[in-house]
Amino acid sequence: MSATTETCGVDEKFSEDGMADKKREIEAMDLGEIKLREIIRDEFQGHMKEMREDMSELFDNRIVNMATDILQKMETVVSSNSKDLSEAAKYCNRIKPSEEDGLPRKQFLPRNSMLTDLYEIKHIRTMYNVIVTVLIILFIHTAIYDIRTTGSPNIAISTIKKGFAKLPVVLFVWTLMTCSTFGVYAAFCFWATRREQQPPKSFSRKVWDYGWLTALIAYEIIFIILPTKAVLKEELPVASSMIVLMELTRMLMKKYAFVRSVAPRFLTYKSHSDMETIKPPDFSKFLYFLFAPTLVYQESYPRAKTIRWNIVLVNLAEVMAVIFCVALLYERLVEPNFKDFGTQPVEWGMLILNILSAMLPGTMMFVCGFYCLLHSWMNAFAELLRFGDKMFYKDWWNSRTYFMYYRTWNIVVHDWLYSYIYKDMYEIVTRRNKMLSMITVFSISAIFHEYILSFTFRFFYPVMLTLFAGVGMFFLFVLKTNGNIFFWLTLFVGNGLMASLYCMEHYARVNCPPVRDDFLDYLIPRSWTCILQ
Length: 533
Description:
Layout: H1 2-90, E1 94-95, E2 105-106, H2 114-118, H3 122-150, H4 157-163, H5 167-195, H6 203-233, H7 238-267, H8 283-291, H9 309-338, H10 348-357, H11 359-384, H12 402-408, H13 411-429, H14 434-457, H15 463-478, H16 484-511, H17 526-532
Antiparallel strand pairs: 1-2
Helix pairs in contact: 5-6, 5-7, 6-7, 7-14, 9-11, 10-16, 11-16, 13-14, 14-15, 16-17
């Protein structure tokens, strides 16, 4: 009994010890698991914190980069827009008037010609160098061709001598025209200073004003007739005739601009309300305007500080080179196709082929004439007179419509037509009728173009009048085209037709006998009678 009890006591003791060990093992396991969980939790929280920091840094960097990109793009757009605005302001040709409902007026700014600015771009300069190289090769080729065929290098010198013959007569006529233009200034000053001696709003003042206006109109008519008669009487060749007639037209426009700009000051002047009496402009201002490369009168213009003689020499050299180039084009590519016109029956297929062949040289001569007169010649005189505003043309070669072309290819003449014809017609005569004002401008421009060509070639053959005032106005008002390819295509066709038809009429009058012996012979195209025969 006692042994059993002892045994049971030992077993209970072992059992309790085992339970205690189990409990300690369980507690140890629980502590290890808790520590493991804490380690895992701490590790996880650490990783999560690192991930949050990385994501935050990445997000911040993305935000900063995005903001930087946006700011850079905004700066690019703003700078581009400001550059465009500065370019637009640089080539802006108008300034809004102070009065309401008035048209903008001409503004003068110190600026270069567009091609002068484009030559600063190396790609455009390279194209210029390529053209010069082609011209040099053309001159060499022509010289060698002349030596092999005639024994001496002609290089179109005979054509130039023939076209510019009788230059002393041209100089004499030009001097007389210039002196008579000085007389207009003297007569204007006499009218302006003596006008205040007549009572305001009196009949005597009206007689004084209208009498001098009539005298001015009569003088201008005589001014047109006498030089034109000299051209015909002296039988000046083509280039010499064109110099006289173009200078006549230029002086007419200059005198009209001066009188139209200055006379209203005296017509609206009221002596009792003004503190000082007004005086005519000094002769030096009139003289400068007479030779300045602009047709719009102002008391002062932007002036350069010095004369860049290298620019003057380069531009004058370009004038001579272009004259030789035009003579070569005419002598080699145009004249051979038409010089026998009228000596043999006309073959219509060959005639059409010759007209097509004349499109390229005709357009090249047109571009050369533009470059010679509106870039090289005008820039040379602008440098000599330190005239600051050299915007004589805009980028007409990019024209998509003829409306843009007419407004950009000759800014000098366009400014005169706008300032003194269109503006007066729109604001005073037609009472805001744009269509009638524009038709008046086209009519006057076409008439003077045809006047110069008719007396230069000694016959009236209104090809330019038809193309300029007819087809051109059709494209302007009816068929409003919108494409640069179409513009250049029609320009090639138009210049080819003009070169061909004027050459055919010229050689028809050389080779074909006249049908009539009166004034109508100058009006009836002799090339038509040659074809009919």
